[in-house]
Write a structure and sequence with these properties.
Layout (H helix, E strand, L loop, with lengths): L19 E5 L2 E6 L2 E6 L4 E2 L1 H15 L4 E6 L5 E2 L4 H4 L5 E7 L3 H14 L2 E5 L2 H12 L1
Parallel strand pairs: 3-5, 4-6, 5-7, 7-8
Antiparallel strand pairs: 1-2, 2-3
C-alpha cells in the first residue's frame, strides 16, 4: 500500500478536519472524523487487494469507532458486487454513501445496495452525503 500525505482534494462545505489523506495506486482516500471519502481512478477494476488496502486504512483510523464511507464517483471504474460480502463484514462500517450525478450510477447503485444489504444511499453532491452520514452516526 503506497501512502503519501497530501492536501485535501475534496472540497467540503463543512468545517471537518482532514485527518490524513492517502494516495493509492488505484485512487485516493481522505480520512475525516467519523467518515472516509474515497475516489477510485478511471478504468480501475476494483479487486480484493484494493479493498484490503482500504480496510487496512479504515482499521488504522476507525478501529473502535463507527464510521461511514463516502464513495465519490468522479470516474468510471468496475466493482465486482461480490466484494460487498467482505465490505458488509466490517462491523463498525455503518453506512455507505455514493455520490454521483451520472445516470449510469443510479442503476449500478441499486445492484450494489442489494449486495451490500446495509444502509446505503445515493447523493448528487458530497456535502449532502457528509451531512447524512454525520446525522446517522450521532
Amino acid at each position: 500500500m503506497k501512502k503519501n500525505y497530501f492536501c485535501a482534494m475534496i472540497k467540503l462545505d463543512t468545517k471537518k478536519e482532514l485527518i490524513k489523506a492517502y494516495k493509492l495506486d488505484f485512487g485516493y482516500v481522505e480520512i475525516y472524523p467519523k467518515f472516509a471519502v474515497g475516489v477510485i481512478n478511471d478504468g480501475i477494476d476494483l479487486s480484493i487487494e484494493n479493498l484490503s488496502d482500504l480496510i487496512a486504512i479504515a482499521d488504522i483510523h476507525f478501529r473502535n469507532e463507527d464510521f461511514a464511507y463516502i464513495s465519490l464517483r468522479k470516474h468510471a471504474y468496475a466493482i465486482n458486487p461480490a466484494l460487498y460480502s467482505y465490505i458488509k463484514e466490517i462491523p463498525n462500517l455503518k453506512m455507505i454513501a455514493v455520490v454521483s450525478d451520472k445516470e449510469l450510477y443510479k442503476h449500478n447503485f441499486k445492484i450494489e445496495k442489494y449486495f451490500y444489504g446495509k444502509e446505503m444511499k445515493l447523493f448528487k453532491d458530497i456535502n449532502s452525503a457528509v451531512k447524512w452520514a454525520l446525522q446517522k452516526l450521532d
